[in-house]
Amino acid sequence: MNTILITGGAGFIGVNAAEHFASLGWKVVVLDNLSRRGAEQNAGWLKQNGAAAVERADIRDFEAVQSIVQVTRPEVVLHLAAQVAVTTSVIDPREDFEVNALGTFNVLEAIRQHCPSAFFINASTNKVYGKMEQLGVVERNGRYEYRDLALGVSESEPLDFHSPYGCSKGCADQYSIDYARIYGLSTVTFRQSCIYGSRQFGIEDQGWVAWFTIAALLGRQITIYGDGKQIRDVLHVDDLVRAYVAAYENRVSVSGQAINLGGGPSNTMSLLELMAFLEAELGHNIPLRWEGWRPGDQPVFVSNLSKASRLMGWQPSIPVNDGLKRLYAWVNGNRSLFGWLK
Description:
Oligomer: single chain
Number of domains: 1
Number of helices: 12
């Protein structure tokens, strides 16, 4: 039986990945410090369903990380543990660095020293590309779009780390690539766009698709930063998990590579378009509060998925409207999980 170790496995993406790999017959071990809201519930759900063993540990603790890697000897390490919010990184850049940069280094070193044959998947971010102010952006039909990039941003776009979060995740991104180059580890770093789906406990500064959905259903205040015309390519978590499986199946081809993962040009959405979807589902208008743009905000990000398609045979399969309906139904059916918002 193959073993996968998922750092941050009690988070939103981690719990979905754990469930999927368990369904494929893998032994799943989750490493998580359970500090994020919803992590305790997700860990309990994994244990209750027999999907994973949960090890409570922090990736900043190298001794704990290497002990777990040494004992489990995983075939795959899916590295999801992170500080995930730009705004939080601006408030506390040291913690952001220690979790994202040092934490990733700890995991890579544990693999190099104790399990060098493992395949390492790093969850990076599109924020490593920065604001991309050199790219032409235009407004069309009430939304921002690239003037010329019909297929979106490719991996050849220069890196430009804006915000402490961009710097720390960019550091992890580059370490992941270099450990393949220098030490011969099998690694891939996925520059992920906006991921959404069930078991996502979104908050205002991270996980905006889920946060808007949760807040709208519970009647909470929603704040739009900027003008709401900014767009992202959104990717349902089920499609993302399929990409992790595809990466393992094509690990020789993808090793040492950085690959964009997102919804691509066919699955884009602006903030205002999400609000329109939610208002249609609820049957009434949602009052909004408006604030200025935040540090590191991109008016547009759309992933070019050509490399993922070429190396892994992967493309998104869940249209954005279908994915949003799934998320809405999950939040609506699990309101009791969001008691902390009342």
